Amino acid sequence: MGAMAIAEPAVTTARQTGRADNTDILTKHDVHQAKDARQTGTMQATEQSSLHKIRLLYFFFRFSTGSLIPFLPLFMSSCGFTHEEIGRLQAIRPIVTMISGPFWGALSDRTGKKKLILISTFVISAICRLSCAFFKDDMQLFAIALCLTSLFYAAVTALLDSIVVSSLSSKQRLNFGKLRLWGELGNGISSTLMMHVSNNEAYGFEHLFVVHGVSAAVAVVFMSLCTPSNQYNQQKTKANGTAKNDDIIDWRRNLLDVFTNAEIASILGAVAVTGCSVSVLENFSYINIKTLYKLHGQEDRLGQEISLYRMFHTSGGMLTWWWSGSWQKRLGPNGVIFASVCCVPLIFFLYAGVGDGLDVWTKIGFAAAEAIRSAIFAAMWSSATIRMNMICPSHMTAALQAIMDASYRGVGSTAGAYFGGALCKKFGIANAFKIVGKSFVSLLCMLGAVFLSSRTIGSHAPK
After folding, report:
1. Contact 114, 163 (CB under 8 A)
2. Cα 379 from Cα 274, distance rounded (Å)
3. Which of 39, 206, 396, 406 suits 192 as a labelling partner, its CA being 20 to 30 A distant?
4. CB 120 within 8 A of CB 159
């Protein structure tokens, strides 16, 4: 009995010690869980803060460009330049972009100084664009200013998109469109406001240059805040190549691989065709609308209703940027690109006029064409940017993005300006739009037939 009495306290003490040990283990486990939760919450808060900065960056960047670039042809006209001179001046940007865009992309990839190149080229291009206000009486100096503007601005859009997409995780990249739509919002607000300012005799075009300069300065602040540092980009570049000679060999081999890759070539081709089509529309659609309004005696309503059409343009782009990630989940990036190209002929038919003269249906067609045109660009550009970033070598993201930008704004825009000008001069704008639309439909039907026949032949081929 005595032995049992002595053993009982010992067992009780052991049980109490075990409970205490378990309590300590649970307490430590809870502490680690709480610490992990705090770290996760901090990381999520940091990511959300970074995404908010990117949204504001796109907003002010596109606000600054939208406040002046769309109105440069009107400013040239107010300076007394002829239509032929304006056409030559407008051809400077796509030609210079086509040549200089890939150079800036390759330079930023090779050096890793993407942030420095982005900010410096944007600042210099904004200064050169603002200098156009002082050369309105001299066409040669005006052309030089535009050339320098295009030379440096060719790096900005492609490099900004490349930096943003590369900084996002694979899961976040599908939300790239939701970040980009803030740029569409900024562009829509600024272009709508500046259209009223330019038409107001109390203000004039000089105020557009002031707004452009102020908003560009704000955009530079956000570029410096939200983009990765040059040291980070240089480390990333060094991680992809150990020696200078190896980098040169890799670049030569990878450039060859890029241009011989069927998928990349197809995407660049789709981007160039879309850029050509949009260039035809941008250069001649508003001229067609203005002609119709004059012909039917509604010129006094032209400014107000074009502002309304621009609102549809902004809304179409914003909605597409927002839903582009969901569409890519269902169709894949290449599926969205193909669907975007298939919708191009519809815009030409709508701009050519779907009603009788200038009735309600014709105006609805113009509004729908504006929305669809903006939606096609948003869907195509978002999908192409994400897909290019996925399949290209990691040390060539900026270069390939610049090549894609040159395909759209350089090759496509230049071809569209000359091709569209020749057709519109020969057949008239409305008839030229119908011809392009029908030709586009025929081409798509031929490609579809070739694709289906190749699959049918493949399915019956001996295994």
Report:
1. yes
2. 11
3. 406
4. no
CB atoms within 10 A of CB 353: 21
Q: Give Cα 180 to chain centroid, integer Å.
A: 7
Q: Classify 268 as helix, strand or coil.
A: helix
Q: Which of 92, 93, 73, 96 is nearest to 83 (CA)?
A: 73
pTM score:
0.74
Angstrom distance (rounded) from CA 291 to CA 286: 8
- Write out the two tokens for 306: 């074009």
**pLDDT 10s digits, 30-39:** 555 545 545 4
Question: How far is the C-alpha of 413 from the C-alpha of 399, rounded, in Å?
Answer: 19
* CB-based burial label for 96 (10 Å; 0-12, 13-18, 19+): buried
The pLDDT mean for the chain works out to 79
| Lookup: tokens for 439 | 């030709």
Q: Are 246 and 74 in contact (CB under 8 A)?
A: no
Q: What is the DSSP letter of 353?
A: -
Rounded to 5°, angle at Cα 263 from 454 and 279? 105
CA distance 317 to 372: 8
The C-alpha atoms of residue 291 and residue 303 are separated, in whole angstroms, by: 13
**Which two three-digit tokens encode residue 384?**
């192409």
Name the nearest CA neighbour of 108 among 49, 34, 159, 179: 159
Residues 6+ apart with CB under 8 A from 116: 230
**What number of other Cβ atoms are within 10 A of residue 205's Cβ?**
18
Angle of the 262-295 helix axis to the 397-405 helix axis, nearest 10? 30
Within 8 A by CB and 6+ apart from 383, the residues are 324, 327, 328, 333, 334, 336, 337, 340
**Per-residue pLDDT, 371:** 93
Helices (H), 296-412: 302-331, 333-352, 360-391, 397-405
pLDDT value for 449: 78
| Of 342, 346, 345, nearest in space to 334 by CA | 342
pLDDT per position as a tens digit, 420-443: 888 888 888 888 899 988 988 888
Q: Give the tokens for residue 431.
A: 């008839």
Is the predicted pLDDT of residue 293 greater than 80, yes or no?
yes
Q: What's the token pair of residue 233?
A: 């980009």
